[in-house]
Amino acid sequence: MRAITYSRYGGPDVLELTDQPIPKVGADSVLVRVRAASVNPVDGYVRAGYLDGAMDVGFPAIPGWDVAGVVERVGLDTPELQVGDEVFGYVRKDWVHGGTFAEYVSAPVRTLARKPASLSFEEAAGVPLAGLTAYQSIRRAGVQAGQTVLVHAAAGGVGSFAVQIAAALGARVLGTASSANHEYLRGLGAEPVEYGDGLVERVRALAPEGVDVILHYGGTEAIATAPALLADGGTIASILDAAARDELGGHYVWVRPSTQDLEALAALADDGRLKVEIAQVFELADTAAAHEASATGHVRGKVVVRI
Ligand SMILES: NC(=O)c1ccc[n+]([C@@H]2O[C@H](COP(=O)([O-])OP(=O)(O)OC[C@H]3O[C@@H](n4cnc5c(N)ncnc54)[C@H](OP(=O)(O)O)[C@@H]3O)[C@@H](O)[C@H]2O)c1
User: Measuring CA to CA, which residue among 10, 89, 22, 87 is closest to residue 52?
Assistant: First the structure.
């Protein structure tokens, strides 16, 4: 099969299009014919070797954890899925080797769910990692109807989903982004706030009593400004800085694969309450350019690779 691989850590230039064997399929896995994969910032960190202390790597490694595609073959015991089923998933395994930027990926069924019918393969591939991160951090923070929630980096992959999920729960949502993304945020259901100097005053002007929940998905000021922005009894969840838990008594979240949570996201999408903004679509051979686009740190929504 055609796959993107890298044989040493480095920048996007280590990625090359190569021929690889079709992956083996374990008893609790299925072989997915990949129709689309999406890029997450973590793909760049893994490729650069920043996660070397946490995950073993088998070179040549195929990068990528997000997928949407069609079940091509099933394992020995996978009653959940049949050949021909359309699926999407966050296919993170415990080591780095057989990822999703390839024609096929072997995926444990616990990492997959049925693709929402209302989304294209490209849109569905944009959901898993970022959508699960948003969903799981919102659950951890206990967001409820009527609360005011401040989403940092609201226009990014995770933030775009979090704004919509929190709004669907009945929360009032404030979101930080540069001014170029303010109309976009309004369309998602958030009141936009410019990040940078004066953030506390701008948020306070919108929420004089403070906010009930801060969701930290980007920017460096979220931890330092949280005490000045949280209402009494409020909490913070961060996916970037354990200080949110260790110093502020909130939460630190590292996204986990979950069929059940993917099903909840699929239901929101099929209800029309979760839209997927695609910033750019690349061909498989151009995956390095897709990684470069993600690394700018200013993607609106998701960068997708079509296979
Ligand atoms: N712990 C976990 O499980 C987990 C899971 C997923 C992601 N992450 C991490 O969380 C971060 C966000 O992920 P992502 O996929 O959402 O990334 P992303 O899509 O690349 O985020 C890009 C967004 O960040 C915004 N941004 C940049 N600088 C900002 C600032 N100073 N303040 C507020 N917003 C800012 C940009 O908005 P403008 O263009 O308007 O500046 C852009 O919309 C990444 O570092 C990622 O590695 C962690």
Answer: 10
Residue 282 near ligand 1, beta carbon < 6 Å: no
Distances (CA, A) of 78 to 144, 161, 164, 191, 282: 36, 30, 33, 44, 32
Domain 2-127+276-306 sits in CATH 3.90.180.10: yes
Put simply, whether the predicted model's pTM sits higher than 0.85 gets the answer yes
Range(s) of the chain covered by CATH 3.90.180.10: 2-127+276-306, 130-252
pLDDT tens-digit readout, 81-92: 999 999 999 999
Ligand 1 atom showing the smallest separation from residue 252 Cα: 1
State the distance from the centre of ligand 1 to the C-alpha of 260, rounded, in angstroms: 25
Cβ of 307 closer than 6 Å to ligand 1, yes or no, is no
Q: Which CATH architecture has domain 130-252?
A: Alpha-Beta Complex (3.90)
**pLDDT tens per residue across span 112-163:** 999 999 999 999 999 999 999 999 999 999 999 999 999 999 999 999 999 9
Cβ 150 under 6 angstroms from ligand 1: no
Question: Which positions ≥6 away from 234 have C-beta within 8 Å?
Answer: 210, 211, 212, 213, 214
